[in-house]
Amino acid sequence: MFARIVTELGPWSWWVLGLVLLAAELVMPGVFLIWIGLGAILTGAISLLLWESGMWTWGVQALVFAVASVAFTLLGRRFLSSRDGISDQPLLNQRSASLVGRTATLQEPIRDGRGRVRLDDTFWLVSGPDLPEGTRVRVVGGRDSELVVEKA
Asked: pTM of this prediction?
């Protein structure tokens, strides 16, 4: 059945495939199928020119489609990554980094380089020099879910 459709549509089968992939991108957004759809449309455009040529076999068409899809994907990735601008909230998903510069009081003393502090409504593990409970500390850095502190 598929071979019959491709035979009847000829070079337009690539255009149909490309439009189906572009429509699928609308249904399943992810900015990936668009590049493969563009590869199919490019293959369809070349097919319109070379369909009667003896060298334009299904294997060559599949190879052109694969290369065009990869090329469009790489170009699209480069295009979209160059559009990433500077965020107005660069530390949005970096909670420990967003706390740098804040001061707090130690809830548990720092012993052997480890202690605990409360900032807002969260208790944080801290590392730094040994200090007694109740000491004011300043956050100077963060590693994963642990804050690095020094005496304020």
From this structure: 0.54
Q: How many residues does the chain have?
A: 152
Residue 78 shares a structural domain with residue 99? no
Whether 25 and 65 map to the same domain: the answer is: yes
pLDDT digits (tens, 9 = 90+) for 95-111: 777 888 999 999 999 99
Long-range contacts at 115-122 (CB < 8 A, ≥ 24 apart): 115/149, 117/147, 117/149
Name the residue among 133, 149, 135, 136 with its Cα closest to residue 99: 149
What is the DSSP code (8-state) at residue 31? S
* 151 backbone dihedrals φ, ψ, rounded to 5°: -65, 135
Total structural domains in the chain?
Answer: 2
DSSP letter, residue 120: T
Token pair of 108 as six digits: 């548990």
Count Cα atoms within 13 angstroms, Cβ side, for 49.
Answer: 5
Ranges assigned E (strand) in 89-135: 103-111, 114-119, 122-127
